[in-house]
Amino acid sequence: MRVGVLASGRGSNLQALIDAGGNANFPAEVVLVLSDKKNAYALERASMAGIRARHLAPKEEGFYRKVGDEIENHGIELVCCAGFMRILPPEFVSRFSGRIINIHPSLLPSFPGLHAQKKALDAGVRVTGCTVHFVDEGVDTGPIILQAAVPILPRDDEGTLSERILAYEHRIYPLAVRLIAEGNVRCIDGIVQFSENAFPGHKGFISPVSE
Ligand code: GAR
Prior knowledge:
By secondary structure, the chain is an alpha/beta fold. The chain has a domain at 2-102 and 132-147 and 165-194: Formyl transferase, N-terminal domain (Rossmann fold, 3-Layer(aba) Sandwich). The chain has six helices and nine strands; from the N terminus they run βαβαβαβαβαββαββ. The strands form two sheets. The chain has a seven-stranded mixed beta sheet with strand order 3-2-1-4-5-6-7. Strands 8-9 form a two-stranded antiparallel sheet. α2 (41-48) links the parallel β2 and β3 (52-55). The longest helix has 24 residues, at 158-181. The protein is globular and about 50 Å long. Glycinamide ribonucleotide (GAR) binds at residues 7, 9-13, 82-83, 103-105, 116, 140, 166, 169. Residues 7, 9-13, 82-83, 103-105, 116, 140, 166, 169 line the site of glycinamide ribonucleotide.
């Protein structure tokens, strides 16, 4: 499956997807990276990996049309937002309906928007995490594909918590792409369903104390 990535910043999730694609068994490959920020490190990561990388200026007329045209011209089958800090307009979302996914550093629907990790700390929750979801017209809404739960530890600050969550982002984003590329993900009435036996069962855990 040909994957295009939209990124605005350091691109560590992009890197996780590039690295996953380096495994011969992985059924998807990043072939295009687009950024709204000229100096995004994500663009450098793409160039270093030999992937087409392009900056498009968001202030220019027809920004989302150009992004969409790049995606279509490169035969992209799945668009991954990886730290793309813009809200996609409805016409873009409907142009690639069901083919855009996003990663967010909270257990959605809790703490959408910016500074999700700080919002979780401020709310005093004991467990937060990250979510991969299909993109719809809302902000960090849309059918949830995968989530990883991450405990908030007593001495966490925004930095330590963000780092712990990020390590799980790098695990669930490639996994979500794999499940989609293998045809194991369907969306029925706004709820994601997996093929039978896609996952073994898991135990729960207690935060901040776990077995
Ligand atoms: C990640 O933590 C990602 O979940 C978040 O931005 C960071 C990008 O890091 N995205 C959002 O908050 C989207 N609402 P990266 O550039 O190193 O992948």
